[in-house]
Structures are given as structure tokens and as C-alpha cells.
Write a structure and sequence with these properties.
The chain has five helices and six strands. The protein is an alpha/beta fold and 148 residues long. The chain has one domain.
């Protein structure tokens, strides 16, 4: 965990004491299949799919935000088609889309603010838990949140 040094004046001595306190970022970005969300789950929920998940009622995941603009483009999503052999190329292309997406700095800043108080869950509907856009988006956001 990161720490920040805090300087405080000692009483009457003029000496300064250095104390360590935890960084503001004591929560984390997590990913979860949208179908596994439970009502009692704590944390800020963001659906990161471009299309609404099949068979899911909004009430099941409420409250939540829907970051459709953070999802891969329609062309990239269709090209990938959840083919594991295309995942490495998909990841590279998706990162490039994220880097040039004008909505992403605002989303990264919002997530950074939320992380001060609670975990952030990026919700996705793909069946493959290791090779989907949420995995790439999580890595990308973690880099952006650390560098801001």
C-alpha cells in the first residue's frame, strides 16, 4: 500500500515529526460478471458493455452507471467475437481505442474519486472471465488512476 509522509510540528519544541498515513486509494477496481451481482454487494457498479446484457433486468443490478462509451467499438467487438485466438490483438486494439476515447479521462477521474470511499466494480456479460474487455479496461483504468 502506498503511504504519504505527513509533517506535523511537535508541541513547543519546534521539532517536526514525520508520520505515515495510508494513501487515499485504499479501495480497488474489480471486475465481475453482471449476472453474479447480488443486492447486498457493496461497491460502486459500472456496466461496461456496449449492449444491454441478455435477459438481465435493470432492477437486479441497481444502483449502477452504464459506461457504454468505455466499451469497445461495434466494429472491434464484432471482429473479436470472443475468439480466444484473437484476444491479444483485440487487447492491443482496444487499448488504442481507450487512449483516443475523449470520454475516458472523465471516467478515470470519476473512478479515482469513487475509490477514495469504496471499491469500483466493472460489470461485464461475457462468459470468458479472463479474456474480455473488462480485463483490459481494468488494467487501463488502474494505470490512469495511478498517474493522475
Amino acid at each position: 500500500m502506498n503511504s504519504q509522509a505527513v509533517m506535523s510540528a511537535g508541541e513547543g519544541s519546534g521539532a517536526k515529526t514525520v508520520m505515515s498515513r495510508p494513501s487515499v486509494m485504499n479501495h480497488e477496481i474489480r471486475i465481475m460478471r453482471v449476472y453474479e451481482v447480488t443486492p447486498e454487494m457493496e461497491g460502486y457498479r459500472i456496466l461496461v458493455d456496449r449492449l444491454w446484457p441478455r435477459g438481465l433486468k435493470k432492477e437486479r443490478i441497481t444502483p449502477f452507471d452504464w459506461a457504454q462509451t468505455a466499451a469497445p467499438s461495434k466494429a472491434l467487438r464484432k471482429w473479436f467475437s470472443h475468439d480466444p485466438q484473437r484476444f491479444a490483438a483485440f487487447a492491443e486494439r482496444y487499448r488504442e481505442e481507450l487512449n483516443f476515447n475523449r470520454n475516458m479521462p472523465e471516467l478515470a477521474e470519476k473512478i479515482k474519486e469513487i475509490l477514495a470511499d469504496q471499491d469500483v466494480f466493472l460489470l461485464y456479460s461475457a462468459k470468458n472471465r479472463e479474456e474480455n474487455q473488462a480485463v483490459i479496461l481494468k488494467e487501463w483504468l488502474e494505470r490512469m488512476v495511478r498517474t493522475k
